[in-house]
Design a protein that fits this description.
The chain has 284 residues and is α/β, with parallel strands linked by helices. It contains 14 helices and 5 strands. The protein has a 5-stranded parallel beta sheet, with helices on both faces. Helix 10 packs parallel to helix 11. It is globular. The N and C termini lie far apart (60 Å).
Length: 284
């Protein structure tokens, strides 16, 4: 079995699908990854108040051969990113330290996303977007700005994309889609009721549903035909959605770049769109 490279990202994205005892193991490991690397399975089981067998089941369910291979992969990742020391913001940190920790956390999320995203899934998403007669982009709450950005970027490339951010209009829009259309759904948790309703309506209408999310095995991923999974690395402020939004934007950038490579003339379309926007700026 190949070693999983984005270990912490894998733990976070899969934790929601685990039984409670195994999810508790994952939460304990993520609270202090270096501690898990230093611990024996017996010590970790004692500290997490579970059995060694529960730990083995958890890491195997997540794709590791056993606890030893899990520790090796985690230690390799921690050493590679220089993350053996915590990056949480502490009382007394000055502004320069806060800035460094926040940037390090965001960079970590991007690095893990690059390793976590399935390249074949990215290609498949580009395929359906390339062939779509209509692309509706949905997102609510903190995912709404990401959906707006995705819709705008695709539109600037000449694709028939429109962001729809009002929850009621999302359901109306989704119900009007057809087999040649795509519903591009952005949701950090994959559990937002309004977003799920739009995804379900789009699928029922025969459209292809693409999910950009940070958690696997959720109601949204079960409704989607294609899933782009970003890392859910916590930021230094302990608000994982912040770092994940940056990861989502990077995936959208990658989609745009791949679409331009497929049809280089799209770069000219984007430049023309940018020129229109620049013309509306106040001149010096």
């Amino acid at each position: 079995m190949a070693m999983i490279s984005a270990v912490r990202a894998t733990l976070r994205t899969q934790a929601g699908s685990l039984p409670p005892a195994e999810a508790a193991v994952v939460a304990y490991i993520l609270d202090d990854p270096p501690r898990a690397v230093r611990s024996s399975i017996e010590r970790l089981a004692d500290e997490a108040d579970v059995s060694p067998a529960t730990i083995v089941r958890a890491v195997r369910r997540l794709g590791f051969a056993g606890f030893a291979s899990f520790k090796l992969a985690l230690a390799s990742e921690l050493g590679r990113v220089g993350d053996l020391l915590p990056t949480r913001i502490e009382p007394g940190d000055d502004a320069a330290t806060v800035l460094r920790k926040v940037v390090e956390a965001d960079v970590d999320a991007l690095r893990q996303t690059a390793e976590l995203v399935d390249a074949s899934a990215l290609e498949a998403v580009c395929d359906v977007l390339d062939a779509a007669a209509r692309i509706e982009v949905y997102g609510v709450g903190t995912s709404a700005p990401i959906a707006m950005d995705a819709g705008d970027r695709l539109r600037r490339l000449g694709l028939p994309a429109s962001p729809v951010l009002d929850p009621h209009m999302q359901s109306v829009s989704a119900a009007q889609l057809g087999p040649r259309d795509v519903a591009f759904v952005v949701s950090h948790t994959g559990r937002t009721p309004d977003t799920l309703a739009a995804a379900a309506a789009a699928r029922d209408a025969g459209a292809t549903v693409v999910a950009l999310t940070s958690h696997d095995h959720t109601p949204l991923t079960r409704r989607a035909h294609h899933v782009l999974l970003a890392a859910t690395a916590e930021s230094a402020l302990e608000t994982e959605a912040v770092a994940s939004r940056i990861a989502h934007l990077s995936i959208i950038d990658a989609i745009g770049a791949c679409l331009v490579l497929r049809r280089p003339e799209r770069a000219s379309t984007a430049s023309a769109s940018d020129a229109i926007v620049r013309a509306k700026r106040v001149q010096p």
